[in-house]
Specification:
Layout: E1 21-27, H1 34-44, E2 49-54, H2 61-71, E3 75-79, H3 86-99, E4 104-107, H4 119-124, E5 131-135, E6 142-144, H5 148-165, E7 177-180, H6 181-184, H7 199-209, E8 214-218, E9 220-222, H8 233-252, H9 254-257
Parallel strand pairs: 1-2, 1-4, 2-3, 5-8, 6-9
Antiparallel strand pairs: 4-7, 5-7
Helix pairs in contact: 5-8
């Protein structure tokens, strides 16, 4: 399926019915991971649908997903022309979730850094929250085999976010989250500036502005086993600069006045 071609529909949900769940992953050259990862997702959340937003991976990731989708109606793919950024990929998935009337949308990485065993806890937390974060920085959470430099950057970013945005969450930079789709409809996603890795912090801030209740559940983040990380020093600096600018606008009330 090409991005933007999905049709919109809305079906009333029967009282007590199971929520319709969409698990989203953005991919670029994840052919070593994607088949096994989708299988593992369906082992713990058999009712969930999986959406892969693939940026024309040269290694054939998108084609692998298409093959799986031929025999499994729970699997879907959006194919994009090239590398358009993590933020735009997640936005495309949010749009898909709203257009196709899902109740919950889970976002996670496609490299096994977010273990699927935590999916049930992330989804269960939505009974009391509008956004549920798989958190590395609360009791019971942590990181495995993560470079010290990445850990320092991550902790610095989260400290800055708590101070500037006044959001009492410990892990605002992690991408393992579940969103209530009805609340996404009320969130000013059109105001988002970020397209790279600062997207995770900004979209959480926009959800917070929309009145979303934010929750966290502990996870152990596991550094990828296959493939290469997409995070560069340049992108880290750009993302931190964006967060600082947004934070200053938030503290001074500029963003609220808009």
């Amino acid at each position: 399926m090409q991005e933007g071609t999905s049709s919109s529909f809305s079906m009333p949900r029967a009282a007590g019915a199971e929520p319709r769940i969409l698990v989203n992953m953005a991919t670029y050259n994840e052919s070593e991971n994607i088949v096994k990862l989708i299988q593992e997702i369906h082992q713990v959340l058999p009712q969930a649908h999986v959406l892969i937003v693939d940026d024309n991976s040269p290694d054939g990731t998108g084609k692998l997903v298409d093959e799986m989708a031929k025999t499994d109606p729970r699997i879907h793919a959006l194919h994009r022309a090239g590398k358009l950024g993590l933020g735009t990929a997640i936005l495309a998935a949010m749009k898909y979730a709203m257009e196709h009337d899902y109740d919950l949308m889970v976002n996670m990485d496609a490299d096994f850094s977010h273990p699927t065993r935590y999916l049930p806890a992330v989804v269960a937390g939505m009974d009391k929250n509008d956004v549920m974060i798989g958190s590395r920085y609360i009791a019971g959470g942590g990181s495995v085999n993560w470079p010290a430099s990445r850990l320092i950057i991550s902790r610095t970013v989260n400290t800055v976010v708590r101070l500037l945005f006044r959001m009492q969450v410990h892990d605002a930079s992690g991408g393992f989250r579940c969103y209530r789709v009805a609340k996404l409809r009320q969130t000013r996603l059109d105001r988002l500036w970020s397209r790279g890795y600062s997207f995770q912090q900004e979209v959480l801030y926009r959800c917070h502005q929309a009145g979303c209740k934010l929750g966290e559940t502990p996870i152990m983040f596991e550094n990828r086993k296959f493939g290469k990380s997409k995070v560069s020093l340049k992108e880290s600096v750009r993302s931190l600069s964006t967060i600082l600018l947004l934070g200053v606008r938030s503290m001074t009330g500029v963003d609220k006045r808009r």
